[in-house]
Amino acid sequence: MSAAIVLAYKQMPSDVIAPIMQLIDWLLWCVLLACLAWMIISAGRLWSAMRDDMAVNDASHGILMSLIGAVVASSASAIALAFLPS
Q1: Contact 24, 80 (CB under 8 A)
Q2: How far apart are CA 53 and CA 9, in angstroms?
Q3: Which of 50, 53, 62, 86 has its CA 20 to 30 A from that of 80?
Q4: Torsion of CA 71, 39, 46, 64, to 10 degrees
Q5: How far apart are CA 3 and CA 29, in angstroms?
Q6: Based on the number of CB atoms within 10 Å of its own CB, is 60 exposed (0-12), middle (13-18) or buried (19 or more)?
Q7: What are the pLDDT digits (tens) for 27-56?
């Protein structure tokens, strides 16, 4: 069985891709803004906990999760832009 499978597809027109790209950009900005807000809140909680001599809290977990969320959102945007032809 030496049959070659050929995947044929049409390129999407630029008037279809442009709104999708703009939507991806807006979603990335919203996610990064949410991650920044969560990091600021978590940093305030961490500062408050350290000031009250409570070393064990979940504020450091919130900071780590906001950083991971920002990295995942940026990576997903880059992957989506790689699959969409320009």
Answers
A1: yes
A2: 62
A3: 62
A4: -10
A5: 46
A6: middle
A7: 989 999 999 999 999 888 888 888 876 655
Cβ-Cβ contacts under 8 Å for 80 (sequence gap 6 or more) = 24
Supply the pTM of this predicted model.
Answer: 0.71
Which residues lie below 8 Å from residue 47, measured CB to CB, with a gap of 6+?
A: none
Given a contact cutoff of 8 angstroms between Cβ atoms, the answer to whether 17 and 86 are in contact is yes
Q: What does each C-alpha distance from 83 to 21, 25, 70, 77, 79 come to in angstroms?
A: 11, 15, 20, 10, 6
